[in-house]
Amino acid sequence: MSKxxxxxxxxxxxxxxxxxxxxxxxxxxxxxxxxLTGAKEGCxxxxxxxxxxxxxxxxxxxxxxxxxxxxxCEITTIEGIGAAANLHPLQQKFLEHAALQCGICTxxxxxxxxxxxxxxxxxxxxxxxxxxxxxxxxxTGYDKIVRAVLDARNGA
Amino acid sequence: MSQNGHKVIGTRPIRHDGVDKVTGRAIYGADIQLTGLxxxxxxxxxxxxxxxxSIDTSRAEAHPGVRAVVTAHDLPQIADKLADLGEAIVNLxxxxxxxLAYGKVLYKGHAVAGVAAVxxxxxxxxxxxxxxxxxxxxxxxxxxxxxxxGAPILHEDMKTTSMGExxxxxxxxANHFQHKMGEPDDGFAEADVVVEREFTTQTxxxxxxxxxxxxxxxxxxxxxxxxxxxQGAFSVRDxxxxxxxxPISKVKIVPLEIxxxxxxxxxxxxDPVAALLSKKTGHPVKMTMTRDEVFEGTxxxxxxxxxxxxxxxxxxxxxxxTAYMAYEAGAYxxxxxGAGAGCIFTxxxxxxVQIDGYDVCVNKPKTNAYRAPGATNAAFxxxxxxxxxxxxxxxxxxEFRVKNGAKEGTxxxxxxxxxxxxxxxxxxxxxxxxxxxxxxxxxxxxxxRGRGVASGYWFxxxxxxxxxxxxxxxxxxxxxxxxxxxxxxxxxSIAMQLAETIGLEATDIKPYVVDTDSIGYTDVTGxxxxxxGTGYAAHATGQALIREMxxxxxxxxxxxxDAIDFADGVFSYRDDAEKRGTFxxxxxxAGDAGGPVVAQVSTNPDGSGGGAFATHVVDVEVDRETGKxxxxxxxxxxxxxxAIHPSYVEGQMQGGVVQGIGWGLNEEYIYNxxxxxxxxxxxxxxxxxxxxxxxxxxxxxEVPNESHPYGVRGVxxxxxxxxxxxxxxxxxDATGVRLxxxxxxxxxxxxxxxxxxx
Lengths: 156, 758
Ligand code: FES
Ligand code: FES
Description:
The complex is a heterodimer. By secondary structure, chain A is α+β, with helices and mostly antiparallel strands. Chain A has two domains: 5-80, Beta-grasp domain (Ubiquitin-like (UB roll)), CATH 3.10.20.30; 89-151, [2Fe-2S]-binding domain (DNA polymerase, domain 1, Orthogonal Bundle), CATH 1.10.150. Helix content of chain A is 29%, strand content 16%. Chain A is built from five helices and five strands, in the order E-E-H-E-E-E-H-H-H-H. Chain A has helices at residues 26-33, 89-96, 106-119, 125-131, 143-151; strands spanning 5-11, 14-20, 52-55, 58-61, 74-76. By secondary structure, chain B is of the alpha+beta class. Chain B is 27% helix and 26% strand. Chain B has 20 helices and 31 strands. In chain B, the strands form seven sheets. In chain B, strands 3-7-1-16-13-14-15 form a seven-stranded mixed β-sheet, sandwiched between helices. In chain B, strands 10-9-11-19-18-17-12 form a seven-stranded mixed β-sheet, with helices on both faces. In chain B, strand 14 (224-228), helix 7 and strand 15 (251-255) form a beta-alpha-beta unit. In chain B, helix 11 (375-393) packs parallel to helix 19 and helix 16 (530-557) packs across helix 17. Bound molecules: FE2/S2 (inorganic) cluster (FES) (2 copies). One FE2/S2 (inorganic) cluster binds next to loops of chain A.
């Protein structure tokens, strides 16, 4: 086992320090060290988007980022996007449109869609489909997910 | 109020578990944390077929941080015994050998040992330190090759069963069966048009996004608890009890949220290994699979070879059909060829039919159920032949299907006679839908376009066993415990049926999926049974609560119980209009008249009534140069009996369609000559993304199921059945070339066009 490294971050608006081995991914740290299990592991190699978080304003696959790389970074996970009492409009629209079945992909989709709307508040359906192509959902066929995101646009 | 006088059924409430799932709070199998937790990993075979000469675990055991190593020698060796796991019958000896290989490995990825260590990385390091000596054996991965004389034999002691009798022949063919009705030869003699074609399909995976996981704790008293994601907690309990040879009372399964299953999360893989490791270490042990382990080590759905022949008269009547169906079982017998045979001609009324099915072992993972298992392979063949016959006869393919459609009283070749079904109604709805009536330009942007249709059938499995336990809170809300794991909104669809029965809102019911110690035996979430079977129990629970509330009202009002009526959510005494109250009003007082109000109900309905039918319409655009097929428009039509929560019915239809599109256009296990899958990742095993698809339009037909109090039919599985055939028919319409091998991926389409000058 290699020596652990001290990492200082800001996660969902709070200063968070953690220790991790250099080989630990950010996803492992979030899930196993920090109890932030909203990010899911679907592939561990950047192909499903279930682990997506926002790091310094950029959407990343947290399975492809090392924990040590997060030093000095600001991170937003699904847990920081909204809670029962103050759901983000995307979360509300996912519920209303029944845009989830098993729900394992849902945190990743909401994190990705929020990153899209933050940079482009009024995307077209094509833009939504292009942006979300890095997130796999095996249950819904995407129809209701795309509708929920379109319905959550500012301009909608 | 929705249609049919229902107040709750047919509405679209927000699901009860929704907020937890959109905020990331819901706890899935891999999310569980326990004190003292160890992490496990599996050593897997690099060979598709080999004898295990020795396993040396000493280097792994000596690795710092490793706490235990187990192999098949830690499992009790059990005798042959068949068990029904809900969607398939399995031999428990095979199930045990599949969990940890004993004597031989039968596919690349076959588990041979398990390790527990202080963290996952250390466990994975230790896996590399387990030394296994193999004697590689010749392998076979294709179904037809495996059936040949002289093929490498997977099971030296397996004799072919033919037409119900065990023969003396040792071969990879586990079973050959036949269904026959009428005289096919006579039927073909009557026909004016006869079409016979061969088809192949490749191994495909369910592709659930959550990988398999199991966390086990074997405590000092020998009590085993497993936290896992499963379609059937009780099925896991049965399997654990058999594979580990321990009393069922010593096993408790706690089902956590499940991230997709589609039939693939019924068999256990990790659970017994985690249990053995926990027993050895005294610690809880968590195991999760990587994605490549899911592809290579869990059950996909079979590749297959089919030959289908159908005949019709010039006036458009089907007279005969035969099918030869050979399905890969994978490493152990038990492909879904039987189910496929029950579906292959079922949307049609054909007087003369013969179906021969073959269940064949090959050096691939043991196949497992995948959404309408066996039916998609079958429909790909039948629906393409039907398209060709319609074309030869010069009739509209949907009108041909309506004319020959199965209806109440039509007999299936495998025996059963249809009760009330919505086959013809569904096809007619497709025939009349705006999409089918719209025109399609046959060329655009230098590409060619075409439209295809196909139908499909899936017999929802027997209603099955379900239990529900409820307690009424003084505010009139109800806690509802159930044993059906919720894989796509069934908490809502079941709670809605209870709410409907007792005149409450869906939100007044609080559904909980509980562990196997806390509720009666409940069959798997699978076979399209949950909203039907557990919904059936929910209705019965509502009836029991109404009876109980009448008793309570009778005490409170001091009137005879049989003079109390319940209608529109209100209890009332027939002879005094003052004595009345809603369920909620009574709930606040009922506890004073006999203690808390509770009810426990279990049901096992006699059959599930008529099955589910679907007809799909698709428009495609084909790039002749690259062979790429784009979907322009897709409409799925399906009989749901009664749609309890229409959004989730649509969702099942859309999800099934898209899995069928993936199967039709891209997905396949690609094997090299060494018997290795070469594309075991989500990058190379190409499932559809948002960018590959348009919106999926849905039309729900409702022909109520007589065998359910609210008319529910299972809806989950049949939507995967028509897409590959509908796509093949559309590609033909666009290019004039018929494709009969799946997947119709760009290289295959390109090659077919080149060979046929299309
Ligand atoms: S788990 Fe990170 S992309 Fe799939
Ligand atoms: S809802 Fe199950 S994977 Fe998307």
